[in-house]
Amino acid sequence: MRELPRKLSTEELSELFEGRTALVERLAEIDDPLDRADEILAALSHEEQREALNAHPAIGAKKLSARSAAEQGAPGDPAILTELAYLNQVYEEKFGFRFVVFVAGRPKREILEVLRERIGRTLEQELDTGCRELVAIARDRWTRT
């Protein structure tokens, strides 16, 4: 397991966060980017936070990066995938950004329960939770490689 780095390039951060966003650009400029990611995300506008969340692939999506595919595991039960796709859409319509959750090999049935619970939350709660989950994913990706 690797320790968190003192500096990371834009390219390395883009891989960890699934795209080149305002978040990635800011993190590439500072020391200890993964340690300070929560602080940087909190300072971003809601628009920039949404951009960071929307760069991440949806749970159960067909087109995934190699990292996301490994984290999400096998496709699984078609009924669960159908419900995930539907609830992902409901979530995105309600909040205006993608549902992001730290999967780390959890079964899709468990993620479905998390998604159902989080749909009932407020916009502010979800922006905060989604951003924290995004950072947790990036940190985990770094330490696993």
Explain this structure:
The chain is mainly alpha-helical and 145 residues long. The chain has one domain (10-144): UraD-like, CATH 1.10.3330. The protein has helices at 10-17, 22-28, 33-43, 46-54, 66-72, 78-95, 108-119, 123-144. Helix 2 (22-28) crosses helix 3.
Query: End-to-end distance, in Å?
Result: 7 Å
Mean pLDDT, all residues = 89
Main sheet summary: none
Helix content: 55-70%
Identify the CATH class: Mainly Alpha
- Round the Cα radius of gyration to an integer and report it: 15 Å
Q: What is the fold named in CATH at topology level?
A: UraD-like
What class would the helix/strand composition place it in? mainly alpha
- How many strand units? 0
Reading the helices and strands in chain order gives: HHHHHHHH
Assign an overall shape: globular
- Beta percentage is under 5%
**Total individual domains:** 1
Task: Enumerate how many helices there are, as a single number.
Answer: 8
Q: Flag low-confidence runs.
A: none
The CATH architecture assignment turns out to be Orthogonal Bundle
